[in-house]
Amino acid sequence: GNQLAPRKKLDIPVLFMPDTMKMYEAVVVIHVMRKNGENWPYEDSVELNKDLKRSVTLAENGGIQGILWIYPVHGIPEAPQQKLVRAVVRCRARQRVERRIEVPLAGVVPGANDMPAARNSTRVNTYKPANIQGVVQVTDGFSGTVEFLYELQYPSAEMKSQLGALVGMHLIEKEWDTEYGIVTLIFNIVFAPNKPMRSEATLIVQHTTGGVWKFPMLFIATAPEVDDVINIEAVGLNKESIVGFNLTSQTR
């Protein structure tokens, strides 16, 4: 019953209050009719009729009684980030460090293959044979597991190009505590910086049912170790002393 004047806008509020960490789906349908009750005429052709049936309501006399706009809505709950401690991975430039971090996921909705059968918690190792049910399978990029997807997001494309090749991340274990409804994912982070830097990133974890968790991270590369110390001994006042050394380029 809302009236909309020509060239005016209509705001349609959508409220989303999820009670579980899973994706919800809905459809917003806008049905527009003329205020005077008249219908829009149209040509009754076969091709046109197929397209119109998806987006219009037809009157008995063959005219168009109403026009439909259909907007699918996906509600994806995101866990709050208050009180989260930033995970810091620190390494000297031109060195390599490996670190394990644990991220707790509260409110995970259990699926058919998610719940362990015997114990309150279960630990699954990625290196077990692939035919064992519940094995976490790790792939490159936006990585998939039996239950979760994860990736590292960076504040900018430039930072992603600088840091993306220097950081490796693999999900190696998971632990499910059914008593408290918390899943803990254990990641192995590899950081091999080539120069001093300080970069932020966000670990995004998404359950296959639609819940999203975000964990802030900080990568710090400190100054590298000194390669060598070159001593030049003086041979006398106002006389030059020369020492030679080689520099090798690491790239073409």
From TrEMBL:
<feature type="domain" description="CFAP47-like immunoglobulin-like">
    <location>
        <begin position="78"/>
        <end position="222"/>
    </location>
</feature>
<dbReference type="InterPro" id="IPR058952">
    <property type="entry name" value="Ig_CFAP47"/>
</dbReference>
<dbReference type="GO" id="GO:0005929">
    <property type="term" value="C:cilium"/>
</dbReference>
<protein>
    <recommendedName>
        <fullName>CFAP47-like immunoglobulin-like domain-containing protein</fullName>
    </recommendedName>
</protein>
<dbReference type="GO" id="GO:0007288">
    <property type="term" value="P:sperm axoneme assembly"/>
</dbReference>
<dbReference type="Pfam" id="PF26579">
    <property type="entry name" value="Ig_CFAP47"/>
</dbReference>
